[in-house]
Amino acid sequence: MSNQLHQTVVETDVDNDFEKQINVSCLEYLLMELGPLALRITDKLEKYSSSSTRESNGSGNGNDNKQVDDFHYGGVELFQNESLVSNEINNQMLDNFGFQIGKILIEQLIFLKNDGISTKMDEILDIMKIIARDVWKMIYQKQIDNLRTNHRGTFVLIDNSHRLISSMYGPDKHRISGLYLNFSCGVIKGVLNQSAFKANVEADLKSDGSVHYTIVVI
Amino acid sequence: MSSKSYKSLSDDIWKNRVDKINSEVFTLTYGSIVAQLCRDFTYAEVNTQLEKMGYNIGLRLVEEFFAKTGLGRCTSFKDTSEVISKIGFKMFLNITPTVTNWSGDGKQFSLILDDNPLTDFVELPEDNNAANELWYSNVLCGVLRGCLEMVQLDCDVYFVSDVLRGDPITEMRLKLNKFLKDEVPAGEE
Fold it and tell me: What part of A 59-98 touches B (C-beta under 8 Å)?
């Protein structure tokens, strides 16, 4: 990417407009649970479809397909199921969770802060700034650390420490973090979609723990 | 501890030891999760999924609870009810549900939620099934069940009524089944 533009995201205050407050942990717990939730849903949906095929085959005793419901909730066994974690439906679902939330958040931002933030939405760069600054702060309590663009429709957002992933350790980190990166990508797509832009978004977890989101506007 | 000192403890925690955010993102996020579930499942299954989700949260949330409160064991189930309402709900959702409707044997009580951050701006789908079958805030039942299990209390937690369904109040019921025994984890005897 030649012709890079470096921007340090400017601090703005998006709080204080909404008088009800809650503990930030509530949101974090909820977002962390999205991963297991998606796994359970995927498993259930797969079982619906596979049980109907198995019945028609007349060979279904169910033992071959270990039920996720038998697992101990709260444990990490759910994440050990590799085929489930890398399942396409599952990733699609997290992407979609993010998409819906991104759509709602950007509406809410424009509605609540119409005097606070710049609501100039016709330039894609403005929208990227809103994502990097305001949307990220709403969801992750921190801003994107760096925003780059080649001015030809490709943007790279760099988050030095993803709020949900930075606390993960162990050999499975890469695999599991993928779930939450799908969610983040969904958020970006949701915001862009609501602003009438379509884009491919890919997230890449680097070895130093930072996450690079590459956004290519279609 | 008296209920008055619970209140001052939780006020202090809320004021000084909790990072706070506006509830809107939380409310909206939860809303879109429920909406997504409703697309995929029957309302009964949605209730189950929300409860499971809450249970997982409860298992982890209890750690933060003890880290921030430094509380020891409750002396009675009555004591527990006070702690749940005045400290637990207060330090996470900044609400204090009313404890009421004790059963004669002291093993069941209700929490009345006058204010529920989960349901701000929420309307149930218009079909009658939702109002009859969906417990929108069922995640809270799971959270309480998970937390209580971590302190060796085996409880059933369920909603009895919800203003979202058109009921006059939002009422959660807690029922103590039994005390769980302290168990030494396998291999650590």
Answer: 73-74, 93, 96-97
Closest by Cβ to A24, choosing from B19, B24, B60: B19
**In Å, how far is A141's CA from the nearest CA of chain B?**
8
Question: Quick check: B49 and A141 CB within 8 A?
Answer: no
Half-sphere CA count of B46, side-chain side, radius 13 A: 21
**What does pTM read for this prediction?**
0.85
Read out DSSP for B128-166? Answer: HHHHHH--TTTHHHHHHHHHHHHTTEEEEEEEEE-GGGT
pLDDT by residue, tens only, chain A of 218 residues: 334 444 334 344 444 445 789 999 999 999 999 998 998 888 888 877 776 654 444 433 444 444 555 445 555 566 777 777 778 888 898 999 999 999 998 888 887 766 555 555 668 888 899 899 999 999 999 999 999 999 888 999 999 999 888 888 877 788 888 899 999 999 999 999 998 899 999 999 998 889 999 999 98
Residue B161, CA distances (Å) to A208, B170, B175 in order: 49, 5, 16
CB atoms A26 and B26 under 8 Å: yes
Q: Say which of B35, B36, B64 has its CB closest to residue A25.
A: B64
Domains, chain B, in order of start with CATH, read 3-179 (3.30.1380.20)
